[in-house]
Amino acid sequence: METVIKIIEIFAFATGIAYLILEIMQHNFMWIIGIATGLACAFSFGVQHIWGQMGLNIYYVVISIIGLARWRRDAAALESSKGSNDSIIHLNHLKLKTLLISILLFLAGSAALIWLLRMLGDSESAVDAVVVVMSAIGTWWLAQSYLQQWYIWLIADSALTAMCIHSGMWWMAGLYMAYAMSSVYGWFHWKRNGRYVDS
Fold it and tell me: pTM for the full model?
C-alpha cells in the first residue's frame, strides 16, 4: 500500500506541475489536468487523515468544470472585442463586495472548519482549516480570473508546504513549494499580459 501511495503522490506532483504551468499561461486545459491532480491529492491527503485538504481537492474537481466554462466564455468575449491574441490573459475586476464577502467567508469558514476537523481527528486541524478556506476562495477567484488570486496562493501554498513537511509528505511539499514560488511569477505574467473583459 505504501508503494501505491508514493506512486499517487508522484503522479499528483507531476500533474500539479503541469497544472501550474498551464495556470500561469491561462490555458483552458489546466482545468482538465486539475481534475486528475485533485483526485490524486484527495487520495494522498485522505490516507494521511488530513480531511480538510482531502475535501478541498474534491472541491477542486468540481470547480474545474465551472472554471473551464467561465474561462472559455471570457476568452471568447475578449477575442470578439479586442481581436485574437493567444498571449493575452483575460481578467475581471475584483469588486469590493466580492472582497468583503470573501473575508467574511474566510473568517467564519476557518473557525467552523477548525472545530469540525478537530472533531474528526484531523492531524493538522488549524493549519488545514485555514488553508482549505483560503484555497477554496483562491480557486473561485481563479475561475473568475481575478489578478489578486495570486496573493492568496502565495500565502496558502507556503502554509501548505510547511504542513506537508511536518507530515512527511515530501512530494506534496515539493509541489506546494513550487506553487508558492511560481505565484510571484504568475502575478507578474498576468499583470503584464492581462486585459480586462469587464472594463
Answer: 0.84
Residue 91 belongs to what H/E stretch? strand 89-91
Sequence-separated contacts (24+) of 40-45 with Cβ below 8 Å = 40/8, 40/9, 40/11, 40/12, 40/15, 41/12, 41/16, 41/172, 43/8, 44/5, 44/8, 44/9, 44/12, 44/169, 44/172, 45/172
User: What does the angle CA 144 – CA 17 – CA 127 come to, to the nearest 5 degrees?
Assistant: 70
C-alpha cell at 136: 477554496
Measure the CA–CA gap between 64 and 83, rounded to whole angstroms: 26
- Phi, then psi, of 169 in degrees rounded to 5: -95, 80
Write down the residue that cell numbers 480570473 correspond to: 145
Nine cell digits for residue 6:
508514493
- Helix or strand (DSSP H, E) at 146: none
Domains in the chain: boundaries: 2-196
Q: pLDDT, tens digit, for every residue of 21-56?
A: 999 999 989 999 999 999 999 999 899 888 888 999
